[in-house]
Amino acid sequence: MIGLFTDTPFFSDISEVIRLFADVRGIGRLEAETPSAQGLSIVHRLTESDGVIKSEAKVYDGAKETECCEYVSDAGTGALGRKRAAKRASKISVYRALARHFQTELPWGSLTGIRPTKLLRDSERSLGEDGARALFLNEFDVSEEKYRLAKEIISAQEGLFPSEDDLDLYIGIPFCVSRCAYCSFASETPDVFKGAQESYVQALLREIEGAKALFEGKNVRSVYVGGGTPTALPEKLLSEVLESAAALAGKAKEFTVEAGRPDTITEEKLNIIRSAGAGRISVNAQTLND
């Protein structure tokens, strides 16, 4: 078991960084800065003063401190900007401390999640090409090879992005039958949600209905029902969600339902998906190793 203490609300985000180095599902939450007597512990603290953020991460093997990393950055502006800067600093300091502890560097550095190309594209818009490159290589510790790959991808994607009147809609179903070790999405398993599917779906349907006015005069290019695992829902709830999604899809070029876990796919659910008008399902590989 790996233990983590942080005085920030970023426990889950920091846990994803830890999982870059350790193949563990559960990471224990330490209630105090004292490390566990056995195993690996990470103690993280974040302070802000005079517009500057300082993030400090310490790695312990048992009671022995093995590495410490301090990362300092601008605190950002506005509530969203400050939160983004604080989370970024937290992840970078923990990543660098663990990289030193394990004596390894990872090709994507401190980045987690699935959209490094979007981050690079947005960074180029706000910082310029040179500023974005420096951010990836010097702050996120992304390798030159992976930076070039991301750069090639966003260059190939030019011209494919929506206009102001185009919409790509994502409908999230945050439930799975079990949680994969690599997953960084907001999703819960049966032992956690315990009957919340019904109430969530009803709230989702109300939200979709209330949002329809926002789509007037817009061109809905695609609708993607993802998760989590939408096909983890019971047939009745899946049908209700897809019926509501179909009303939004209209003449969309793409209507996709994610069926990431093959063990959740049944003939009845496939018929529900087809009847709703979806033209594509996405079945994800959980691992390429048997």
Largest sheet strand order: 2-1-3-4-5
End-to-end distance = 24 Å
Helical region count?
8
- Uncertain regions spanning at least 5 consecutive residues: none
The CATH architecture designation of the largest domain is 2-Layer Sandwich
Biggest pleated-sheet summary = 5 strands, mixed
Number of strands: 9
Order of helices and strands: EHEEEEHHHEHHEHEHE
> What is the CATH topology assignment of the largest domain?
Transcription Regulator spoIIAA
**Beta-strand content estimate:** 15-25%
The top level CATH class name of the largest domain: Alpha Beta
| Sheet/helix structural class | alpha/beta
**What is the averaged pLDDT score?**
91
Number of domains: 3
The coarse overall form would be globular
Radius of gyration: 21 Å
Kindly state the percentage of residues in helix: 25-40%
